[in-house]
Specification:
The complex is a heterodimer of chains A (333) and B (273). In chain A, the strands form two sheets. In chain A, strands 3-2-5-6-7-8-1-9 form an eight-stranded mixed beta sheet. With 333 residues, chain A is α/β, with parallel strands linked by helices. Chain A has helices spanning 9-22, 88-101, 109-116, 165-175, 189-205, 212-221, 225-231, 239-242, 285-304, 314-318, 325-332, and strands at 4-8, 24-32, 35-40, 68-70, 80-86, 118-123, 149-154, 157-162, 181-182, 250-255, 259-264. Chain A is 35% helix and 19% strand. Chain B has helices at 76-81, 119-131, 154-161, 208-221, 253-256, 262-265, and strands at residues 10-19, 24-31, 42-47, 51-55, 67-72, 89-96, 109-115, 138-145, 166-172, 182-183, 200-205, 228-231, 247-248, 251-252, 259-261. In chain B, strand 3 (42-47) and strand 4 (51-55) form a beta hairpin. The relative contact order of chain B is 0.15. Classes of the chains: A alpha/beta (333), B alpha/beta (273).
Chain lengths: 333, 273
């Protein structure tokens, strides 16, 4: 782990093509619909991959927790997956999902199998978006751990750093068919400088936004008024949850043959907590609205000792009622 | 666990359907392979292709070739369960959660407060306590139901009253001719039980309103927060702390509960909702 390698651009392209033909489904962000998002990569679009830019429209979780999945039988894995371009915020979010979905007593088979059969190549963000605020919550805008490999581009070179055993094995596998240079040192000055610049940019932009501890404290102490105010425009569409890299609640739907279909769900929908007989602690919209913030900033961090809001800002971008989580938090603070 | 896949069911055949009250039935099930659980743990019961709901078995945890589930008709899925006939096949997932820590009750008096269909998990607990009664000082069951007709497990009370160290009290909210036991809410029975509170635990299981006032009364009597065991009712769906439907503050009721001490959950907002 933490071994640094260098591969030049042409060789990297050649590798991607070879891997996509031989044994992997490769996904990476390309420009589409006015932003960037993952698409399956082949020989034709391999040079359209966008590197080091925040952030794919789709959160990383969707590769492991698709909107709908039959979970009755194990999934057949025909080809392994490589995901290139996952930002550090999404990788941080995946750490929480791992804690929820993989545990000693009860693991989610399909989640586990998808995780095992996927190689995550995370990239630095040299370019950020309007609502990016990862640094506010202590996450750096570049991969540090949680991924298998990190990728930083610098002119015609791609620098690959390994972060897991799976990552090391993968580089070894690549090494037999491509020219990959193992580097002695594990720091490239020009990349460090860019990272510093991105951190400064994000910190400056979000200087009024409180960090995790203060946010938790303020939310914990809040009354109902602020939630009523901000939720008055909410239509319970659930977009904030669907797009959130850590929201992972689901519904089990029964089909004949004792089949179970796991479908994305959210506490923002009415009746999420309703029990037989009709009792529903989250009947009021403002309570559902607050519930999501409690979950992100109070309960999940307490329960899992993990970050549950990664500061990706997607929920702000996705809200059709233009409710800004950050405005709410700043008003609380 | 029936399978490594937490979403895969173990099939079970309905052997017998027992009418307990106008709204409550007990289903005696034979699982296709032995099904072990600890008292207070729960299962997810699937109606093929229709739906699934969480129930705590009402049968003895010492028996694994039969399983009894007591169901109150209260909503969409439970109404369909009530239409089941012997021979039909259901699916079981589990057991899930944390049940009653019976060994912690050793050497103590156990006060049990049950209301309505909340007697279902308690019956299973009573079987478990009966098996270890040499280690217990005393077991007192206080049970309340709306009316004499709503009173379930009628033969259970006669049987328990004959067992050394066990005593039972029943009350109904609404008197009907022929009823010769107490009338009033279940907490009124607590005036009669005379527990050695210092050396006792209290267990509460019933509808939310009864759990709330039961707990308040027990605290007034001098029970400490950590001596009171509550069985929380939430919308447990996956059973394994993943789907999020039963989150109660930082807890997943399906995984950390459904049995909690009051001490553990008292800080939870809207605890009794």
């Amino acid at each position: 782990m933490n071994n640094l390698f260098k591969i030049n651009r042409d060789e990297w392209f050649r590798l991607i093509q070879a891997l996509s033909v031989s044994s992997y489904n490769i996904y990476a962000p390309v420009r589409k619909n006015g932003g960037i998002d993952y698409t399956i990569i082949n020989d034709e679009n391999k040079d359209e991959i966008v590197y080091n830019e925040a952030k794919p429209a789709t959160p990383l979780k969707m590769f492991f927790l698709p909107v709908k999945l039959n979970v009755t039988e194990p999934e057949k894995v025909l080809r392994k997956t490589i995901i290139i371009g996952a930002p550090a915020c999404d990788v941080e979010g995946l750490k929480l999902l791992d804690l929820i979905y993989i545990d000693e007593k009860f693991s989610d088979e399909t989640y586990l199998s998808r995780r095992e059969n996927t190689i995550i190549i995370s990239t630095d963000c040299y370019v950020t978006q309007e609502h990016c605020h990862c640094t506010t919550y202590g996450i750096n805008p570049y991969p540090e751990n949680g991924c298998d490999i990190s990728l930083s581009t610098e002119k015609d070179d791609h620098y690959l750093m390994t972060w897991s055993e799976k990552g090391d094995l993968f580089i070894k596998e690549l090494g037999s068919s491509a020219q990959i240079e193992a580097l002695e040192n594990n720091k490239i000055e020009s990349i460090s400088a860019r990272r510093e610049k991105t951190i400064n940019e994000l910190s400056y932009k979000n200087s009024n936004l409180p960090g995790t501890e203060k946010t938790k404290e303020k939310i914990n102490k809040s009354g109902q008024e602020i939630w009523k105010k901000y939720s008055s425009k909410c239509v319970s569409c659930g977009a904030c949850s669907a797009i959130c890299p850590t929201c992972s609640c689901f519904l089990l739907i029964d089909k004949p043959g004792f089949q179970k279909i796991k479908q994305q769900d959210t506490c923002q929908y009415p009746a999420f907590e309703r029990v037989a007989g009709g009792e529903d602690p989250l009947k009021e919209l403002s309570k559902r609205f607050k519930n999501r913030y409690m979950c992100k900033y109070v309960w999940k961090p307490e329960r899992f000792n993990a970050i549950a809001c990664t500061g990706c800002g997607r929920c702000i971008e996705a809200c059709i009622a233009k409710i800004s989580k950050n405005e709410l938090i700043m008003e609380l603070a | 666990m029936a399978s490594d896949n937490i979403y895969k069911v173990l099939k079970a055949t309905v052997e017998e359907v027992i009418d307990e009250s106008p709204l409550i039935k007990t289903f005696v099930l034979t699982p296709e392979s032995p099904f072990k659980f600890s008292t207070g743990e729960f299962i997810e019961l699937t109606l093929n292709g229709f739906g699934e709901a969480p129930f705590t078995p009402s049968s003895s945890p010492l028996i694994s070739d039969k399983l009894e589930i007591t169901i109150m008709k209260t909503g969409y899925v439970t109404e369909k369960f009530h239409m089941l006939k012997p021979g039909e096949v259901l699916g079981i997932r589990g057991p899930f959660g944390r049940g009653y820590p019976v060994e912690k009750f050793y050497g103590k008096e156990v006060l049990i407060l049950g209301g309505g269909c909340g007697l279902a998990p308690i019956r299973s607990l009573l079987y478990a306590l009966e098996a270890v009664r040499d280690n217990l000082k005393r077991v007192v069951l206080c049970y309340g139901s709306k009316s004499p007709a709503d009173c379930i497990y009628k033969p259970l009370f006669n049987r328990l009253n004959k067992i050394e160290k066990f005593e039972t009290y029943r009350t109904v909210d609404k008197y009907e001719p022929g009823w010769d036991e107490s009338v009033g809410v279940v907490t009124t029975l607590l005036d009669r039980v005379n527990m050695d509170i210092e050396n006792s635990v209290a267990i509460v299981c019933g509808p939310p309103i009864m759990m709330k006032f039961g707990t308040i009364r027990l605290l007034e009597m001098g029970y400490k927060d950590a001596q009171i065991y509550l069985s929380m009712e939430k919308n447990m769906s996956c059973g394994a702390g993943k789907c999020g439907h039963c989150m109660m503050g930082e807890f997943f009721v399906c995984k950390d509960g459904p049995v909690f001490t009051y001490e553990e959950v008292k800080h939870t907002p809207d605890l009794w909702k």
